[in-house]
Protein: Glucose-6-phosphate 1-dehydrogenase
Amino acid sequence: MAKEKSAIFIIFGGSGDLAHRKLYPSLFRLYKSKVLKDHFAVIGTARRPWSDDYFRETVITSLEDYFDDDKEIMEEFAKHFFYQSHDVNDSEHYIALKNLAGKLDDQFEAGHNRVYYMAIAPRFFGTVAEHINSEGLKTKDGYNRLVIEKPFGRDLDSACELNGNISKAFPEDDIYRIDHYLGKEMVQDIPNIRANNPKLEQALNNKYVSNIQVTLAESIGVEDRGGYYETAGVLRDMIQNHVMQIIGAIASDDPKAKEAKVIHKNKCDLFASLKELSPEEVDTEFVRGQYDTDKTGEKKAYRQEDNVAEDSNIETFVAGKIEFNTDRWSGVPFYVRSGKRMPDKSSRIDIVLNDKVKELGIRPNSVVTLLIEKEDGNSILINGLNYKDAGQDFIEFPEEAEFDNAREAYESLIIDILSGNRVHFTLWDELRSTWKYIDTIRERWDSQTPEFPNYISGTMGPDAAEMLLERDGNSWIWD
Ligand SMILES: NC(=O)c1ccc[n+]([C@@H]2O[C@H](COP(=O)([O-])OP(=O)(O)OC[C@H]3O[C@@H](n4cnc5c(N)ncnc54)[C@H](OP(=O)(O)O)[C@@H]3O)[C@@H](O)[C@H]2O)c1
Structure:
């Protein structure tokens, strides 16, 4: 259990969806577990002219959606919340924010620590970071940490520009780029699982692995996020960040490493070794899809969704084969897949071992599955069975370390921010490599017109996604 932390949070976009759905409930959990107790305050800031009281009401209302605690404790918590109307382009407003933060720091004895949280549109990230610096919001004797939500750019050029802007204002060590998959317990536990299971770790290389599959499937469509989705698509929204970071956890060297710098270096090295694709290889190694209506015709096709163009070519499904040029991994396909309107929600890693693993005492061709969200009470499967029932002893996991999805990703990431632990945040060098890789695919796709829609809602995506593996003599484990 982390001990009590002190800080003033300034939440840019404090009236928005992310703040109310994710941040305030997570802060409340930390309040209930006393990680946040007496020495913290939250300044919500956005353009609309809310009063403190009104802001607190919205915070309590959002908590009521997730918790059935007494209103009294929610009201006590909400007393730490303050609202400051602010337009990101107005320098004067930053002075008002600075003064309010200073006053609250005295009132709550917050140790001059500041967390600047960007829960606003990405186009404002650079402007806000620059103003925090130029208007002197940073304190001298506490910490000043900048938290950036995704998406971090929409291609390599825009990510470079954004990074240039924020790094003029904040040193890299004070920048916390969120990829909320890195806050999920299973993703955080992957290095532990590897470090605690020498046989599995011994098998994780091109001698013993046939292929590794990462699937992030959703059964829902774009819902009310059509406007955002039209600017993104799955490639940018899921593959560049979440899928790559999951691969980073499973395939980086040295899972025993504890220091953030070492862990990041290992991940950077892995991503720097991504095997580049030629434009022609994009056609053979990656598949894109867009959902049509379902078999009954009841569900909307993507092109019928609100705020989506009738002739949209945005992909709602991607499958692809990624490879790395390292001694450890060269020749091993990492098949990745993410899509909307698939039959079920599932986030999983399937490690498909080959027949040589018998020399390690593992049954040939075993499949180890790590479920990122627990399914049917299971978190680790061997050949589809709970690892404890699978009759193979190469995975043992200390009971106390077993994850239970009890911590919300944002709760865990906020503890890390308050503790100055950057392990579960993404470094610029990682993003540079992954964007470069993704840009090749995007550019190729943007130069061609796809035949969309090409898969029925509720199915596994276009047939080409199956063929991608069949061609190599493999098949998807989650099917
Ligand atoms: N929502 C999610 O689940 C989610 C998930 C992952 C990442 N994100 C990222 O989180 C960020 C916020 O997303 P969101 O969904 O919360 O957006 P949102 O609901 O549209 O909220 C945007 C916030 O920004 C404020 N704002 C807009 N223009 C402003 C300006 N000129 N000056 C000051 N404040 C301004 C808005 O309030 P006013 O209109 O009153 O100014 C509002 O509080 C985005 O970067 C998004 O990509 C969101």
Q: What stands out?
A: The first strand starts at residue 5 and ends at 12. The first helix runs from residue 17 to 32. Residues 182-408+428-470 form a domain with the Dihydrodipicolinate Reductase; domain 2 fold (CATH 3.30.360.10).
